[in-house]
Each structure stands twice: as structure tokens, then as C-alpha cells.
Write a structure and sequence with these properties.
Radius of gyration: 21 Å
Distance between the termini: 26 Å
Largest sheet: none
Strand content: under 5%
CATH class: Mainly Alpha
Length: 436
Amino acid sequence: MNTTPESAQPAGPRPWPARLPFFYGCIILPSAALAIFVSGAGQTFTVSLFVDPLIDEFGWSRTTISGLYTAGSLTAASSMLAIGWLLDRFGARVVLAGVGLMLGLAALWMSEVSNQLGVYAGFTALRMFGQGSLGLVPSSLVALWFVRKRGRATALAGLGMVASQAIFPPLIHTLNTQIGWRQTWVVLGIIVWAVLIPVAVLFIRRTPESVGLLPDGATASHPIADDAPRSQLVQGAGDWTLREALRTRTFWLVFVAAGSQSLVSTALIFHQVAVLDSRGLSAGVSAAVLSVMGPVSLAGAMAGGFMSDRFPNRLLLLAGQAILGIGMLLAMVMTETWQALIYGGVIGFSSGSVITVAAVIWPNYYGRKHLGSIRGAATMAMVAGAALGPLPFALTFDLTGSYTSVLVIFMVFPALSMVAALFAFPPKRRALPVSS
């Protein structure tokens, strides 16, 4: 039975977000998008633009830098459970402000690195507070504020990533050329502080119930429960704790179903220039491919978000992984510019759709109350996958001068994800025995 949460009926004056003539989620949504936007400071498409400057300055091999990136990302992955717990304990407002402070400091740290240990520490912080925390917290915040419209809201918040992919790479390329890679990191740190910290402090609120509202702008006379069926989806029963979720087969199937996207696409983007060069395509074509990935990723996110409110999420994950496999096949055979552009579009569409559906499926299956902890565990896998992808690509290229063999081997990952997605049905609670 649907009941109005006690926190949605506070005594005394109503908080100002509840007195607005529109649903406060309309402010939460662009705020989350801005948080996702500044995650660009720690995303692979940004870090990859500093690989060649690091090689030029320190004389390290591409494999060495890929190894440092892998080690830093794996270290960052181990922190995601803690970030998720902090989100459940203190709320997105506090956590996002802290993450913004630390991500800005990480960028400043990178401007001063002088040895491999310093680069490893910098990569760790960038991945922990950039890709990891700002992948977890804003999307979880959207899931807390929206239930019936969760898919489309998540897709709209993903506009922040599209803007990040469109703005950060050319900005960094220009700054690296004009002021050098060290000062570029300083500029990135200032951007993070100027955007994320004010947004977190001024606009972010923990949940709709915390300010006297209900998800989706529902009213007390028409409340929406998390476990209410939406469209053709069958939801999990109520709110699950992390411990309860870990005991379900569904958790691990979704874990695998969404996992290979970050593993494969991160490796491809990290080595974007070298991958295309190995196919006889220039760095200019690589830039054009990146410019295609952004808007097509938006199309994938929108498609995944809107369809996840109407169709079984597991089947959408399966489709996204199938598209990723097609992109990997294109990476092995492309020789013309038009083929490379199609490759970029396929990888972008797959990334946008899988990331969006993966963000939606966890609250759809396991509820909102412990979402931070549950998604923290899932994000740990995502960051770890992103960590492990680039290194075998670099090793293979250094040994063979080609990426074909590693792409063939990596084809197994989207295949496994497709099988896992097929069987990732919504979890069901075990019935307790009835005592006589």
C-alpha cells in the first residue's frame, strides 16, 4: 500500500524547495548534469590527452603510463564502497562538495608531478573523485528524486557527460599547446572548484522527502512508492540492503551485464590515437571520431533512458553490449575515414545506452534507501574495469605493433555480458516460513 513518508509532512514552515511553483527535481536535474560535466577532469578522454606530454617530458613508455593508470584506477575502485556509504550516510550535498574539493586538488597535484609515484597518486585521485565518485553520486541523486520518470531523467542528466566530452578535449588540446600541460591541470582544477562546489552547496538536496516533497513531484493524495510497477517493468520488492542485494543472483548478473562496457570502451578511448594509427588513419581522423562519439553517445543515452521506463532493463543492457561488440569488429577492419566515423558512432551509442540503463536498473531492482551502498559496489566494478582495459592493449601494441589480437580476445567480454543480461531478472525476496 502506498503511504506518504513522514518526512514529507514536516511540522512548521515548509522548506523553500517545497514552496516553489514547480517540482524541485527540475533544479536537481541540471545540478546533477553539471556535476557529471566536471567529472571530465578525471575521465579517460581527458587523461589520455596528457599521455604523450608525459612521454615527451619523462621518456617513459606508453606501457609504463598505462600501468600507472591501471594501478591508480584499481586503487580508486576500492574506495567506491566507502563513497557509496558516505552518500547513504550524509547525502549528496555534503559528498559532492567534498568530492569537488578533492578533485580540484587532484588536478593541482598533477600540475606538479615529477616521478612515477606522483603520477600514480594523481591518477588514483583523479579516478576516485572524477570518474568514480562523479559517476556514482549524481546519477544516484537523480534516482532518488525520480521514480516513474527515472530513465528519462537519468538520460537528461547524461547531457552533462556529452557536454564534457565535447568541451574538455578541444579545450585541453588548446591549453596544452598554448600554456603547457602543467598549467592546463591548474586550469582544470579551478574549473572544478568554480562549478561543482557552489552547485553542491546551493542547490543539492538529499531526497525529495527531506524537503517535504515526493519523487517525481507527486502529491500526498497521489504518492508513488518505489516498488510500484512502472509500465512493463516488474520491480524488486521494496528497499534492499547491500548485504541482501549481494546474496541475490541478480546482483551478480547485472554486475557482469554492465561491466564490459567500461573495460572495453575505456581501453579504446585511452589508446584512440594509436588504435587509429595502427589502421593507417591520422590523428586528425582520431579527433573527428571523438567529435562523433559525443553526440551519438547522447543519442544512446536518450534511447536507453526513455526505453528503460518502458522495457525490461536487462534486455536493453543486452542490446547495448551487442552494439559494443559490433564496434569492436569495426575497430579490427576499418581503413577509411568514413569507417572510423561509423566506429566512433557505434562505440558512442553503446557507451551512452549502457551507462544510462546501468544507472537506472539498480534502483529499479533494489530501491532507493540503500542505493549509495549498492551502487558503490557496482561502481567499484566499473572503475576496476576501466582500470584493467588499457594495460593489455598497451602491452599487445608494444609487442606486436597491432591491436587486432587483443580485440579478438576482448570480444569475449561483451558476449559474457549479453548472456548475463539475458538472465538478470528482477530479484525476488524469499518467503519467510510460516510458523504454526
